[in-house]
Structure prediction request, 157 residues.
Amino acid sequence: MKSAMEKIELSTELNELLNGKDLIKKQHEVMMLLTVGKDGWPHNAMISIGEIIALNHQYLRIGLWPNTATTANIIRAQKATLVLVYKGTVHYINLSLERLEELPNPLHHRERFSAKIISIREDIAKYADITSGIKIRLKNDMEVIGRWYQSHKELLK
Prediction:
């Protein structure tokens, strides 16, 4: 794989992917959120398009289930790397995270984080086409996508 020059903001294409719109079309997209555990080992978690939203090209909001290892790691270290494969490119997005205050009476209780993009590195392969990353098929797509839209509204508060 060849690494392209590092960037510090989302491309227009990635911003459109993460803008919170057209979730039905984007429902199969899954990303890896990498953190470091208390033991010093990398910790991997999958997040869906419904758990992240771009505020602009430099800031994201992320909503995670409370009481998970990923959430605890972010609260402790305030850092993570988002890895996503999109349109033939692997994107490694380093984030600085800040925990947001709890919302009163949320529809879906999540730990909410403001994420500033610190750097983005992109990989492509000269010798092969990257055809996909991790993809999912929702079991009850309309219910889940409805929840995602509600979660995005709460992330934007």
User: Anything to note?
Assistant: The CA atoms of residues 91 and 122 lie 5 Å apart. The beta strands are 2-3, 30-36, 42-48, 52-54, 59-64, 79-86, 89-99, 111-124.
